[in-house]
Every structure is written in structure tokens, then in C-alpha cells.
Write a structure and sequence with these properties.
Structural class of chain A: mainly alpha
Radius of gyration of chain A: 19 Å
Order of helices and strands of chain B: EEEHEEHHHEHEHEE
Largest interface: A-B, 24 and 28 residues
Oligomer: heterodimer
Largest sheet of chain B: 6 strands, mixed
Number of helices of chain A: 14
Helix content of chain A: over 70%
Shape of chain B: globular
Distance between the termini of chain B: 24 Å
Strand content of chain B: 25-35%
Strand content of chain A: under 5%
Chain lengths: 282, 225
């Protein structure tokens, strides 16, 4: 049993993937908790598809350089986030259909661009490839975590206030829009940094699923953040082991394990869990 | 608290979605005055409050707010847009409104003490760690009053603060209002209850059919209030 668990990490690339995913497991879930609380879950979908054309663009012009693809992804992600925010303001919050329209276009154009290049494996880009996690990719994941945590702690207070009571923030002269943009930038950074190991379509899973699961374990913001980080770390570890033994891409494996944690939380979690609701109050 | 300055209305016209809701309003909110705004639904009471706070444009005329900064104004919006499902405690909500924060946006010990004191003042001692989801409508309104207390504003604007609130809570909140008045702050409250306005307020601004009428020292006013 112990061998079953430790065998994958005898390999150097698996250790690198684990280190990178654990780094991302600390940075991404707190952002996911805010996305869930702000009812912006759909935004994460938009961003994960939105970065793809940028990554494809970078790959076309600079080959398989992680920096070129990463930069392209960040620029595309930010552009999509800003356009989505602008659409939301222009249409009075009924933006979900526009968001759906945007991410479908982004995904289709990204796939079209990549398909025209013969050197790039679309599956790897969409679903991740742990073999591709070289030192540069690992460094990118660690760097994003190193940036995300202190910035998030600095914007924590205005971000909570803007999520809790945007009207109050506006009335007291707070710059809600600025903090929101900084927050979305962190989200884009996390999604982009995870694409090598997890794939663009799966990187968001490590952000959202632990956050959704943690809601069932704590009624406090700090508790939800801690729970989400713990679940993400366990999902990364478990997902990589599953990925190794079943020979499936790392992204879907990690997301499936995180999804398992979510289903368990949904049923057995003390906060709004189905099990609790099924038992009549004594 | 910043300097308490008069608010002067000069022939003010306000529009809401292109429609004139209030015209030719002139008058003054003297420093330290206690004013009720009454009128039927759609008379522009909330719009006026937001215009005083500087959050709604004045289409004709001007509201002279002489040197008032955003942090000098506390607006307690009706049925506040606050997300009641957000996982924070009562103390968090109040501490988030503290005007002064440290270098790294930390809330100091003095400010936390002020937040606790404000909770006790509105009759909710020991509610610091209570999540806001668990509060009744009256308790929640008390927390919002406590938040308004720590804002330490010189101009306090309240939009229907006693709606959907039980009688006991109303009494507590009225005493907080009287305390603000005694401290020399300018207070404006939108009310739908004319009786309450007459009993507790020195000055009443009646809005109807886009017109404003001032009543000073209403006959029912109890000096003891």
C-alpha cells in the first residue's frame, strides 16, 4: 500500500509535478473561495477558456516556450476579464449569457489556432502533461504562489468589504473596481501558471472544487479558506497517484479526486450537507 | 469626527431615470441638526439622501457640502445591499467600517475595542463572533447601527432605519440617534412614519409630488426625546 502511494514519486518529473501542484494548491483555493462567495463561479469558466487563445498565440510565435505561452495567456485572460466586467456593467448584471458566448468563442478560436500548428498536442494543452513540467514550469507555479499570497493578504480587507457590501464601499469612497481587478489578475495568474501540469481546462478545477467543498465544512471565511487549501493539497497528491497508476492525464485525475472530496462534503459536511438535512432535528 | 459643516440646498432638482423626482428644493441642514425626511413611496426620499451623500448627481442647482470628505459621511442604506450569506461575524462587519487602518490594512486594538463597544451600545454584547447569517432582522439592523457608530462621521444619513424592526430595537436605535444628536453630529433619517418623525425630530422635510416643504419644531415634538 505504502509502495502504491510512494512509487510514482520515485520519478523526478512526478516529484516536480507534485511540488508545483502543491504550490498551486496553496494559492488558488483562497481565490476560489472568493469567486464562489461573490457568485462568480462562471467567471472561472470564462477565464479558463479565455487564456487558451493567448497561450496558442504565444506558442505559434515563440514555439513551446512557457514564458511566451504564459505571457500570451495572462494578456488574453486579463482582456477577457476586463471585457466581461464591462459587459456586466453595461447589461446590469445579467451577464451570464454573454459570458457563455465569450468563452465558447475563446475556446473555439484557441483550438482552431492550435490545430493549425502541427507541433503542439492539443490534449496536453487542454488537460495537462506532467512530463512537460520542467524547471521553468515549476518555477512559474512557485513564483505565482509567492506573488499571490502576500498580495491577497494585502487586498483581503477591501476585497471582503467589496464582496460583502459593494454599496457601502462605494459610499465610503472605496475603490472597489481597483481591488476587483487586482483580484482577477491573481486568478488569471493562477490559471495560467497551472496549465502545463493541469491543462487550461483543468487548472480552474483546483481553484473551484476545493472552494465549493470547503463551504460544507465551515461557516467562517477563514475556515473555508483553510479547508479549501487542505482539500486542494490532498487532491493534488491523490490525483497524481491516480494519474500515474491509471495512466490518465494529471489534470483530469486531480480534478476527479477534488470532485470526490466535493461530493463527500456535499453529503456529509456539517454545513448544509445532505446527510444533516435528511436527519430530522432532535 | 471631522468638522461638522452645514449642508445647503440651492434650488436643487433631482432626476431618477430621466424623471424629475424633486424640484426647487432650497434650505439648510444646520450643523448638528436632526432632520426627518417623509413622503410617499417614489417621492425621491432615497434619491435625496444619496444626493446629500454625493452619490447621486444634481441635475439643476447645487448642494453645498463645504469641505465634507467621503469619510465624513455615513450612509445607512435601506435594506442594505449587504450580502447576508457572506461568512463573516458581527465584529468583522463593524471592523470593516473602521475609518483608520494600519500600514498593512490591519485593524488596530483601539478600533477593535471601539467595535466591541459599539456592539454593546446597540444591545448586542457578546455577539462579536456570531455569524451574520444567524441574526434576526432587528439584530442585523442593530449591527448596521453599530457599524455606523464606528464610522465616526459628522454627517449621518439613515434610509428607513426602523422598517421591519421590532419595537424594542426601535427604542434602542432611537436612543443611539439621540446620542449622535447630542454629540453634535448632523443626522438625516428617511421615515415612513410621520408620527415618529413628529415625536423625535426637530425638523421635518416633507416630499410630495416633486415638491419639498420644511416643518420646523413640529407641535408634537417631545423635548425629552
Amino acid at each position: 500500500m505504502l509502495e502504491f502511494l510512494s512509487e510514482p514519486f520515485a520519478l523526478g518529473f512526478m516529484r516536480r509535478a507534485l511540488a508545483g501542484c502543491l504550490a498551486l494548491s496553496v494559492a488558488a483555493p483562497p481565490l476560489g473561495v472568493f469567486l464562489v462567495l461573490r457568485r462568480m463561479s462562471l467567471m472561472s469558466d470564462v477565464l479558463q477558456h479565455g487564456v487558451l487563445p493567448g497561450i496558442a498565440f504565444g506558442a505559434i510565435f515563440a514555439g513551446l516556450s512557457i514564458w511566451a505561452m504564459g505571457l500570451g495567456g495572462i494578456i488574453a485572460g486579463l482582456a477577457v476579464a476586463i471585457i466581461a466586467g464591462w459587459l456586466a456593467r453595461r447589461t446590469g448584471g445579467k451577464e451570464d449569457s454573454q459570458l457563455a458566448g465569450m468563452y465558447l468563442i475563446a475556446l473555439a478560436s484557441g483550438v482552431a489556432m492550435i490545430s493549425m500548428q502541427h507541433g503542439i498536442d492539443l490534449t496536453h494543452l487542454l488537460f495537462g502533461n506532467v512530463l512537460a513540467v520542467d524547471n521553468a514550469a515549476l518555477f512559474a507555479m512557485a513564483a505565482v504562489t509567492t506573488i499571490t499570497l502576500p498580495v491577497l493578504s494585502l487586498i483581503w480587507r477591501p476585497l471582503v468589504l467589496e464582496s460583502l457590501d459593494p454599496g457601502f464601499m462605494a459610499a465610503t469612497g472605496g475603490r472597489g473596481g481597483l481591488w476587483h481587478l487586482v483580484f482577477l489578475t491573481l486568478v488569471v495568474l493562477c490559471v495560467v501558471s497551472g496549465f502545463v501540469a493541469l491543462g487550461t481546462l483543468m487548472a480552474v478545477g483546483l481553484m473551484m472544487l476545493p472552494a465549493i467543498a470547503a463551504r460544507h465544512w465551515s461557516g467562517a471565511l477563514s475556515g473555508q479558506v483553510r479547508g479549501a487549501v487542505l482539500i486542494a493539497c490532498l487532491s493534488s497528491l491523490g490525483g497524481l497517484i491516480v494519474s500515474y497508476h491509471l495512466d490518465i492525464p494529471a489534470g483530469p485525475a486531480i480534478v476527479l479526486v477534488a470532485g470526490g472530496f466535493w461530493l463527500l462534503s456535499l453529503v456529509f459536511g456539517p454545513h448544509a450537507g445532505l446527510w444533516r438535512q435528511a436527519i430530522p432535528e432532535a | 469626527m471631522g468638522a461638522v459643516t452645514p449642508i445647503i440646498f440651492r434650488n436643487v432638482e433631482l432626476r431618477q431615470a430621466g424623471q424629475v423626482v424633486l424640484r426647487e428644493l432650497s434650505g439648510i441642514l444646520a450643523p448638528g441638526s436632526l432632520t426627518a425626511v417623509v413622503g410617499p413611496n417614489g417621492a425621491g426620499k432615497t434619491t435625496l439622501l444619496r444626493a446629500i451623500a454625493g452619490l447621486h448627481p444634481v441635475s439643476v442647482g447645487a448642494i453645498d457640502r463645504a469641505g465634507l470628505r467621503a469619510r465624513d459621511v455615513a450612509l445607512l442604506a435601506q435594506g442594505s445591499h449587504l450580502d447576508r450569506s457572506f461568512p463573516v461575524t458581527c465584529l468583522d462587519v463593524i471592523a470593516l467600517a473602521v475609518p483608520r487602518v494600519g500600514l498593512l490594512r490591519t485593524v488596530g486594538r483601539d478600533s477593535l475595542a471601539a467595535a466591541r463597544e459599539a456592539l454593546a451600545r446597540v444591545g448586542l454584547p457578546g455577539f462579536e463572533r456570531r455569524p451574520i447569517q444567524a441574526l434576526s432582522a432587528g439584530q442585523f439592523q442593530r449591527v448596521l447601527f453599530a457599524r455606523t457608530i464606528v464610522q465616526d462621521a459628522s454627517l449621518i444619513l439613515l434610509d428607513e432605519p426602523f422598517t421591519n424592526v421590532d419595537a424594542e430595537t426601535t427604542d434602542v436605535l432611537l436612543s443611539v440617534l439621540a446620542q449622535w444628536h447630542a454629540q453634535g453630529r448632523t443626522v438625516v433619517a428617511v421615515l415612513h412614519d410621520l408620527q415618529m418623525a413628529r415625536r423625535h425630530f426637530r425638523q421635518i422635510l416633507c416630499l410630495q409630488d416633486a415638491r419639498a416643504r420644511w416643518i420646523t419644531d413640529p407641535p408634537d415634538h417631545l423635548q425629552a426625546a
